[in-house]
Amino acid sequence: FPFIFRGALDVGATTINEDMKLACVEAIASLARKEAHAELSKVYAGENLTFGPDYLIPKPFDPRLIVDLPIAVAKAAIASGVATRPIEDWDAYAEKLNQFFTRSKLVMRPIITRAQADPKRIAYCE
After folding, report:
1. Is 82 within 8 Å of 23 (Cβ atoms)?
2. The dihedral of CA 27, 33, 34, 37: what is its sign?
3. CA distance 46 to 125
4. Contact criterion met (CB below 8 Å) for 23 and 75
5. Residue 106 to residue 116: CA distance in whole angstroms
6. CA-wise closest residue to 74 among 119, 12, 123, 118
7. What are the structural domains of the chain?
8. Per-residue pLDDT tens for 32-89?
9. H or E stretch including 9?
10. Global pTM?
11. Beta carbons of 66 and 98 less than 8 angstroms apart
């Protein structure tokens, strides 16, 4: 999962430990239980985005992932003593992470729009 590496790299973690992995998993579980981001309804039109048997983890394009997961991982790295560059200003860090999403959204929007205009079906054999 790329966001665990983002958090680890941003604090200069010397290793990825169990505390960091657990923090990432807990952040994913927390996001899945929250109301889905409005942006997702555009991408996943018609899908149930409410926590339950059909929605256990957030969708890959959930914009909250790029912010919440690296923050959780970075905090766990600092708390467990493996961070070499602790973060002081969490709000500024969250804003920096949000800018990654904004830039990638600009790149991906035309691709998503084109895919939505001509949806394809996939058939799986049993």
Report:
1. no
2. positive
3. 24
4. yes
5. 16
6. 12
7. 2-117 (3.40.50.720)
8. 898 887 777 777 777 878 888 888 888 887 888 999 999 999 999 999 999 999 999 9
9. helix 2-10
10. 0.76
11. yes
